[in-house]
Design a protein that fits this description.
With 684 residues, the protein is an alpha+beta fold. It is built from 16 helices and 29 strands. Strands 7, 8, 9, 10, 12, 13, 14, 15, 17 and 19 form a ten-stranded antiparallel beta sheet that branches.
Length: 684
Amino acid sequence: MPRDIPVGNGKLLVCFDKNYCIRDFYFPHVGQENHVGGNCCRLGVWVDGKFSWINEDWQREFTYVPDTMVTKVSLRSRALGLRLACRDVVDFHEDIYLREITVENLEGQTREVRLFFSLDLGIGGNDLGDTAGYDPKTGALVHYKGPRYFLAGGVVGDDYGLSQFAVGQKGTEGKEGTFKDAEDGTLSGNPIAQGSVDSVLALHLEVAGKSQKTAFLWIAAGLSWYDIARLDGVIKYKHPKNLLKRTEDYWRLWVRKESPPLELLPEGLADFYRRSLIILRTQIDADGGILAANDSDIIYFNRDTYSYVWPRDAALVSHALDQAGHPTAPRNFFQFISRLLQPEGCLLHKFNPDGTLASSWHPWYYEGQHQIPIQEDSTALVIWALWHHFVLYRDLDFLKPLYRPLIKKAADFMCQHRDAETGLPAPSYDLWEERRGILSFTVGAVFGGLTAAALFCQVLGEEERSAHYQQVAAEIRDAASQYLWRPHLNRFCRMLSRDRLGQLDYDDTCDASLWGLFAFGLYAADDPRMVSTMSVLRDHLWVKTPVGGMARYENDPYHRVSPDLPGNPWFICTLWLADYLLEIGGDEDIKQALEILTWVASHALPSGVLPEQINPLTGEPLSVSPLTWSHATYVSTVHRYLDVMARKEEAAPPAAVTPYARQEDWIERLYSQTCDSIRGICKF
């Protein structure tokens, strides 16, 4: 079940399912310590002696208030004669989740409406040893275990406090949960329970006929009882409506603080661009980690989640945010990841948001030999993204402490970690995390990483080291032309590996990740070899159903829907095709790229959330949502489109050219010029 309308502030993240249940509640790191863990914190309504939890019997619409991280939820029950208009928010500054519920009475007479909210927590990711109880000082329910405290309160008008409450045990001795106590409209008032527990609160409203009334409920999260009591005081002092308003204003200002020429996009795509930026922020931890996705339902597929920091994904997300004019999260990420570089100079598979090593299926021992279990493209793309950050912001004081321990150390590793026979990067795991070998995508990424490192050395005066990195990059490009190009297929292969006798074995599977051969400068997009490769990929991987889109690779088994198709459409793979078309830059190519941007927006959830992939027959979301990489790729492709359109208008003189803009252009040209220079010394 996809997660929709996520809201967060970098420390507290709340995610919902299609029935408006809170299914994920992360604190104090985004993506780490899910205190709901796929359980269900429900909203229910009692009126005229009838009760209903929000479910499929209700008409439900989930969107956001435009240009904000404030939800806009519409719920209607014809059976109950009620409409609920809800707004959810996590305060941008304090660790407070707020929900505004406006109850509209569709009947003609005054009615008492009772709102029930169940809090089904497993603090720290399990429900062992939790305590829940009623706190008379705050008039709220409190759940706690260890250094994790959660307070749930409410208000109707200016009348703070709960109309009813109940606390009890769940999952033991046949007890389904305290939430069942709400279904007769009356709660027991039990004040405390320990072990595996849940709680329910109620707010009562008298709503006149054909009228409406508003209530608020909240969950404050802290590391101590003092923390949550303080936050409860902040809420009552400022009132929830004012906290909601200030957070709405904050996000509107944040997403509009930069002014790219979005008027060049068709109607609706600019809104989706801004929505993507805001959704990206929900998946970013305040301490620098950029999470791949936070959707606990995927745990039922492989007993693990996507709530980790993959350096590759995070580097590409950082690049997208830098392009959009939002450098704070990228800076935090580069500092975060610099502390995690291994002594050898590489980055391991993935990390938790607190910087600890995450779960992995890449072994340290392979075919009787020790190996470093890495995806080398991850190390390379961090350096590549850092260079492009520097191009835009030239923050030398930020760069200085990263130069030796991150940039040069990683570049030296890339120079040394090479296959002795071919000169290509040594075998590592692919970006899809399914196979080990010398991947074309990894080769392109390493070329980009070395080129970026050479440029850092060049601008900081280490010309000999810069020349060395460029020479290694040239050798890698020559090796790619010699070993990865398959003349009889007229395209590049996906991967080289070695059989048990040590002989080279070619994997010629069509794979959308061959995008990486031009994306980081290894080849120009209009190189005849790239042109023929991308043409074959498009022919083999485009999903030939009314849904459309590009699959990852031929016969992709992950969440596969139909054996008659190459795989399911992935948003990142489809956008990579748009990137290629924009790099070619003909009028028809640009038109087709714009059609892809429109296709992506049209296949998002109504809220604007993009999953990882979609069903090729129905267009329904598959795997996790939102996928951070999907939204970041959309943002980057939009900027590629805007750059192409700007180049087409270069004949018109700019209104004003500042020294800052001229300097940016000079530095920006260095990357493409250096790629050209490296290609110039190549043999192939």
